[in-house]
Design brief:
10 strands, about 180 residues, alpha+beta, 4 helices, five-stranded antiparallel β-sheet
Length: about 180
């Protein structure tokens, strides 16, 4: 009888070693919480914040959001600066829809997205397929960004941040006439 019990005990121990039973569970390596990133949004509410500044121009663009991951415990507001531009070149851009926005995001923030929220009844007659974003760089050269995501349900146009400058929605069928005369 002792032999049977000893055999059963050895079998049980062998089985537990094979299946991992009785092993102490190891916690995954803990991460340095200061390096964990969380997605945050900074919003510029044009109608609310700039009602008196816009010289009665139509509110085609209602809000501009910058969405990016930020180090845990940090605030994205500390890394993003944006506001309606006073640059006359960008304010007079052909095909412009709404207010041009100066945006600067510090280099510590990677893969930021810019989201323009627009009023669909007030986009200067532009067709959605023709909406692009123009970035006017510090040297006044223009970058036409047609790699945009248009969400008609939320009335937003989204693109990636490509560098410091003035960003604006535009109707490419009108705006590119000045760059690409035919």
């Amino acid at each position: 009888m002792k032999k049977i019990m000893l055999f059963a005990l050895i079998s049980a121990l062998s089985l537990s070693l094979l299946t991992g039973c009785g092993e102490e569970k190891k916690e995954p390596d803990s991460q340095d919480v200061s390096k964990v990133e969380e997605s945050q949004t900074v919003t510029l509410d044009i109608k609310k914040d700039y009602d008196s500044y816009t010289d009665n121009e139509s509110f085609s663009v209602l809000k501009v959001n910058v969405v990016a991951k930020c180090p845990q415990g940090k605030n994205l507001n500390d890394y993003v600066k944006m506001g309606i531009t006073t640059n006359k070149n960008s304010r007079s851009a052909r095909g412009r829809i709404g207010s041009p926005i100066d945006i600067h995001i510090k280099s510590e923030i990677k893969d930021a997205k810019i989201v323009f929220e627009y009023d669909p009844s007030n986009i200067n007659g532009a067709e959605l397929k023709d909406i692009i974003i123009i970035r006017i760089k510090e040297d006044n050269s223009q970058e036409y960004i047609d790699n945009v995501v248009i969400n008609i349900k939320n009335n937003t146009v989204t693109t990636s941040y490509t560098g410091k400058g003035t960003y604006l929605l535009a109707d490419k069928s009108v705006s590119q006439q000045t760059l690409d005369p035919k």
